[in-house]
Amino acid sequence: MLAADPFLLLILSSPSGAGKTTLTRKLQERFPALRFSVSHTTRKPRANEINGRDYHFVTREEFELLVERDAFVEWAEVHGNCYGTSRAEIDRARAEPDCSGMIFDIDYQGARQIRAKQHDAVAVFILPPSMLELERRLRGRASESEEVVQRRFKAAMIEIEHYGFFDYLVVNDDLDTAFRHLEGVVLAERSRRFRRADLAERLLRAGKL
Ligand SMILES: Nc1ncnc2c1ncn2[C@@H]1O[C@H](COP(=O)(O)OP(=O)(O)OP(=O)(O)O)[C@@H](O)[C@H]1O
Ligand SMILES: Nc1nc2c(ncn2[C@@H]2O[C@H](COP(=O)(O)O)[C@@H](O)[C@H]2O)c(=O)[nH]1
């Protein structure tokens, strides 16, 4: 197990359609020092998605090559496609002087793999207010075929059964309320002593304490 790491690894997981992407975008605006981790995927891009911003879109062959080369910190097959977080993505963010952490929009399998490598990664599970509303959101997004919507909806209960692994649960009913709860998680986690070790030192050195 690695030593306590001041760099915040914030994992958001949920069943498909519960609102991770929406909440992640809001978190990035509020906390610009947190970088969004752009995953690799074999899924085809949606109409509004941009390669390199939303995902690194790759073929299955390219993905398998990256797995062979041990390029991923974690990866998993989700809803029939492969998704993975590259080591390079995290190394790049760590090298940026104004970056204090990362946000991962990944499934529970990936959350487990990251946690196994970095025990103080913070894992948040986003719950939909109801299955009915989850189905409405999945359909309302209108980015997938009915078959894909059904497949994702069927997988939702299995994903929800893994909520016990996570440190925090946030219900995404009213978006602003859910966001306030997430904001609270980030503020609290950033205030942990091991992430603020330099604070007392700096105040002492400046003669303020
Ligand atoms: N609190 C909310 N109230 C109503 N609609 C919402 C809320 N949060 C998100 N949505 C809508 O629900 C749909 C699904 O949200 P989003 O794409 O963020 O989910 P997701 O968890 O990232 O899904 P996936 O895992 O498939 O990527 C979107 O159309 C989004 O605008
Ligand atoms: N284990 C990982 N899961 C990931 C990663 N990137 C995204 N995901 C999860 O996949 C599903 C579907 O995403 P979508 O964009 O196709 O709707 C969702 O649960 C994501 O959180 C990853 O790198 N690793």
Automatic annotation (TrEMBL):
Q: Which GO terms describe its molecular function?
A: ATP binding; GMP kinase activity
The UniProt record lists the Guanylate kinase-like domain at: 7-187
PROSITE patterns, alphabetically? GUANYLATE_KINASE_1, GUANYLATE_KINASE_2
Q: Could you say which enzyme class this protein belongs to?
A: transferase
Which EC numbers characterise this protein's activity in its record? 2.7.4.8
Sum up the protein's function in the record's words: Essential for recycling GMP and indirectly, cGMP.
What name appears for this protein in its UniProt entry?
A: Guanylate kinase
Provenance organism: Labilithrix luteola
Which gene holds the coding sequence for this protein? gmk
